[in-house]
Amino acid sequence: MQTANKKEKQSNNVIPFIPTGDFYFAKGVESFRKRKFDIALKWITKAVESSPHNPLYQCQLSIIYTETGAFHKANQILTNVLQTTGDNYIDCYYLLANNYAHLGLLNDAKKFANSYLEKQPNGDFSEDAKTLLELIEIDDDLDDEDWEIEEEDELIIYQETVFHHLENKEWDKALILLEEMMVLFPEHKIAQHEYSYALFFSGQQEEAIAMELELMREDQSNLYSHTNLALFYYETNQDTEYKQHISALLNIYPIHEQQKLRIAVTLARTGFLQEAYNRFRMLNKSIVKSHISYYRWYSTTAYRLGEPAKALNLWEEGCRKHPNLSKEEGPWNYILT
Q1: How far is residue 149 from each of residues 81, 83, 88, 177, 336, measured CA to CA in Å?
Q2: How many alpha carbons lie under 13 Å from residue 212 in its C-beta half-sphere?
Q3: Between 3.40.50.2020, 1.10.645.10, 2.40.50.100, 1.25.40.10, what CATH number should domain 144-251 receive?
Q4: In this predicted structure, which of 79-93, 128-142, 162-176 has the lowest mean pLDDT?
Q5: Secondary structure of residue 111 in the 3-state scheme
Q6: Mind telling me which InterPro entries this protein's record contains (predicted)?
């Protein structure tokens, strides 16, 4: 009995460790700095769950989403922080501007960058905000239309859904949504280029080429026209024409990762393997890993350039992140005609 009482007394002296939000947050920041974003996301999510009204935790969560390319989720969190705290977290304005720029919604990016500079002209992100505004001014795809917030939200939903269908080669589903987009957002020219792309791979090749040529007459230097026509002409064995557009692409270095990826994929699909490989290596993986095409064509390019181990690693990672990719043949089975 004495021994049992002694053990019970010792047990009662043990102080249990109960993690707090700060503990989770510190672990999340540590993982984030090591660029282990999946682990960081788990820790910071726990921090938010333990203290759901702590804006600092929420801002850090948005930053992780930004790094992994989930810009819409990041923006939802940042918008909520601004609505609940007023101007206590002014950095949210710059973070929103950065995310909108990556989404290609440059009017919103410009609006939030200016708001940040108005409220914090000498803030930590002031130089970044100024640089972003300069890039927006010189970007060829700047849309002069002043979109309403409701229209922007609807456009984002359309973009993300169409993106999913295109990445998974669901051409008919993409075409239906793109037809709606062209009616609802006539100034959003990218939808027209994506429509001709889906049209081509749904089997309507002549119509797709004619449509893209008409779009190019309006803008001779348009990136999407060059990538589409290079691929269309390559697939239809029109060598002279496709090389003309490839030549133009080799001299284009856009600022947005999605546009950089589009060029890399086009080069890979048309046999310019070394040039494609160089472009893939320059991409910010944390942003483009949400694209199946990144893994599909980067792995294929690596394999055909004599790097089977790298190709296999890319393919396996892509299959983990995008289960639909595992239904396709691996890079060793792709044939570039």
Answers
A1: 17, 15, 22, 20, 43
A2: 28
A3: 1.25.40.10
A4: 128-142
A5: helix
A6: TPR-like_helical_dom_sf (IPR011990)
